[in-house]
Specification:
Blueprint (H helix, E strand, L loop, with lengths): L9 H5 L4 H4 L4 H22 L3 H12 L2 E2 H8 L3 H13 L3 E6 L2 E6 L4 H13 L6 H13 L8
Antiparallel strand pairs: 1-3, 2-3
Helix pairs in contact: 3-6, 5-8
Length: about 150
């Protein structure tokens, strides 16, 4: 049975206890562990979606995968701040990374149905007009970038 959070076998995979202890625990502890897991996952996801900068990053990643330097240029922010926001999105499971040499490319992770629904809902609510300046800065950066500094 596949759940919306990617947990395939509910009881064994959610229990935080070793197998030797798990066999002697009542079922209600399994349920409490499962609920704790689900709530913690939801907290991370909604925390990631609660910041305007992270929502802009999600909207930018809708178009294509991007490296940090492209996101920095689009948002006109310093790299550590952008990396922090990308880390929050990655921790929540909303973005995934792909290594290309020494570069890391970010893209939306819509592999799970629940996250795909949330991402779609966020993207539907944010129009291209809302991030018009960011899209223009990204386009200018891509046209003028030095190929030594970005994997494209």
């Amino acid at each position: 049975m596949q759940s919306i959070f990617g947990v395939s076998k509910v009881i064994p995979s959610i229990c935080l206890f070793p197998a030797s202890l798990r066999d002697n625990l009542p079922v209600d502890i399994y349920i409490k562990n499962f609920l704790y897991f689900v709530v913690q996952k939801l907290i991370k996801i909604f925390h990631a979606l609660s910041d305007e900068t992270r929502l802009k990053i999600i909207k930018l990643l809708e178009k294509s995968e991007l490296c940090v330097c492209e996101i920095v240029a689009a948002l006109d922010m310093v790299q550590p701040k952008v990396s922090f926001h990308l880390g929050v999105l990655k921790e929540a499971g909303l973005v995934k990374i792909k290594r290309k040499g020494k570069w890391i490319l970010y893209s939306l992770d819509d592999s799970e149905l629940f996250k795909r629904f949330l991402i779609f809902t966020v993207l539907e609510k944010i129009s291209d007009e809302d991030i018009k300046k960011e899209i223009e800065r990204l386009r200018d950066f891509k046209q003028n970038q030095d190929p030594r500094y970005c994997p494209r």
